[in-house]
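Sample entry (315 residues):
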Amino acid sequence: MPLSIKLNDIYSTYLALSLFISMISVIISSVNPEHLKAVSNNIQNTIGAPYELVTFENSSGKKGICEIYNLGIDKAQYDILCFMHEDLEIRTENWGKAVIGHFTSVPDLGLLGVAGSTYKTITPTGWHSAGSGTSRANFIQSHKRSDTPPIHYYANPNNEEISQVACLDGVWLCTTKKIASEFGFDAATFKRFHGYDLDFSLAIGQKYKVAVTFKVLLDHFSEGNYDSTWMGESLKLHEKWNKILPVNTDATPLEATLKIEKTVFKIFIDELVQLKYPAKTALTALANCRKYFRHKPFLTIKLKYYIFSKYLFKK
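Predicted structure, serialized as tokens:
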């Protein structure tokens, strides 16, 4: 019998055994008992793998999500950890097996999610880059602040089962106990409920692969709230990681990334003005971006003019 066939048989047996013995610890920070009950039932009915539920009641909001997730890492007993919001419903049957399969078949996989971007801008933004084509996502977004019907966000231009990205949204994140213990969540910097996901992604991405899976579909019942608190955490995030940003995992050409940065920087300035942040904040952010904008010298000048026109002339 050819050696390749024997090796394939051994590998198949290894995968099967790994799927059999791997278990998942699902970690949730809860603020709503009804949501927790619903998502607990949903997990039980869909996960399709041995698991434990590690929950923390935090309706008072006294603990930030990083602090709670670190407590979850310490308390979790199993080798794969899944951090998820409670206001969601997973639509995929046996999704636990899919998660275990990814970590088994991709040895250097460090973090898995359902929404991310192959390019993380140096400009302060969320996980996406303003419709630039760098998004990788598979999730349903429902809305509690408007009558907008649910939207299925699906971005998989290469028709992959899993796509490497630079950063992930925190609605649903999976990693291993080993990796989570190695990095932890930065509770010293992020004391609220924003920024933790991008920070965790960027930290793990320095050593392991960060990826979006297209084998798990969930419905998230609330849209993001990009308020002043979110902006403050985002500014801290980008100050912390300024030396390594931008991160580009898909070899997006320089000219295209500069176009993305120009677009999102203007959106960022508009948000600062709306949230009544001082012009100094905008100029500091531009200074932090200057090292990357040197590739296109006039871009810094144009964006500085945009800042002044927004703050002085309200244009």
